[in-house]
Design goal:
CATH architecture: Alpha-Beta Barrel
Strand order of the largest sheet: 1-2-3-4-5-6-7-8
Low-confidence stretches: none
Largest sheet: 8 strands, mixed
Shape: globular
CATH topology: TIM Barrel
Order of helices and strands: HEHHEHEHEHEHHEHEHEH
CATH class: Alpha Beta
Structural class: alpha/beta
Number of helices: 11
Number of strands: 8
Radius of gyration: 18 Å
Mean pLDDT: 91
Helix content: 25-40%
């Protein structure tokens, strides 16, 4: 599965916007999931003048089979990080800011307070921007989910990642039910759009994908992203198959039929890929 099909090949040509993002990041002492997770969309997103920032350091306490972010023992959170995120969002003129993080099982609140501080910093420095958070599962802690939501993000996202059967293999330190519980807790607050995502072709069957759709809807999830899984290195979980664009469209139609109000489905889709394109139609229809 090493040869990419035509629909997954992208240009590596960079432009002035790419260099602007690259330059601002170089002096920011901030991390991006674009770089840490070896995202295949980095060039396109930076050419569009945007990047997904990753808070709470660059070392994760979990080791998932699909993820390139280093795992190990993280350093304590940097108290200046939230303000630097806010400054960068303002300097780049971002209209929609996506903040994600490594998982910090070593922290008493899982890093929820740092998410909240970061949201507040973005509101101060980029007051016109909408804010989306892509969080860890927080061990389905209602207190930690509330800490994040009390800061007022526009979108609360947590990814289910894969189907029930594959969770123990792909996410051995996480749990399908814990992820659903986290989304259910967030949905009960109804203060933000609730979003989740799946990677396709880790070996799942079509009915398992539809089961995951149903489970997410039952948990209160309204927005869904579906993208092609790509192994970041040969040592990561292998790709079972490349899904053609027309199959992604079929899954999108199935998701909409189940009641998802916003669906982004395609080979190159990721949780934060063109995330602002999802929130703008939703806002217009509100």
């Amino acid at each position: 599965m090493s040869r990419l099909p035509p629909w997954l090949r992208t240009s590596l040509r960079t432009d002035d916007a790419f260099r602007k993002v690259q330059g601002r990041l170089a002096g920011s002492r901030l991390h991006t999931v674009c770089e840490s997770a070896k995202c295949p969309n980095r060039v396109e997103c930076w050419n569009r003048g945007t990047a997904t920032l990753m808070i709470l350091g660059a070392v994760c306490t979990r080791r998932c089979g699909f993820c390139a972010v280093p795992s190990g023992r993280p350093v304590p959170p940097d108290p200046g990080e939230p303000e630097r995120v806010g400054r960068l969002a303002g300097s780049l003129g971002l209209r929609h800011v996506v903040i994600t993080s490594v998982t910090r099982d070593d922290l008493p609140d899982g890093g929820a307070s740092v998410f909240a501080e970061t949201i507040h910093a973005i509101r101060r420095r980029a007051p016109g921007a909408t804010v989306e958070v892509l969080t860890p599962d927080f061990h389905a802690s209602g207190e930690q989910v509330s800490t994040v939501l009390d800061a007022g993000p526009d979108v609360f996202a947590h990814n289910l990642e894969t189907v029930r059967r594959l969770q123990p293999t792909v996410r051995p330190q996480a749990s399908y039910e814990t992820s659903l519980s986290t989304l259910r807790l967030a949905a009960a607050r109804a203060a933000a759009a609730i979003k989740s995502g799946l990677m396709l072709r880790l070996g799942e069957e079509p009915e398992e994908i539809l089961e995951a759709f149903r489970d997410l809807r039952a948990a209160g999830c309204e927005w869904l992203t579906l993208g092609q899984y790509l192994a970041p290195t040969p040592g990561h979980f292998p790709v079972a198959r490349f899904v053609p664009p027309e199959e992604f469209e079929q899954y999108a139609n199935a998701a909409r039929a189940l009641g998802f109000t916003e669906v982004a489905s395609g080979p190159r889709v990721r949780s934060s890929y063109r995330a602002g394109d999802m929130i703008r139609p939703a806002a217009a229809g509100a």
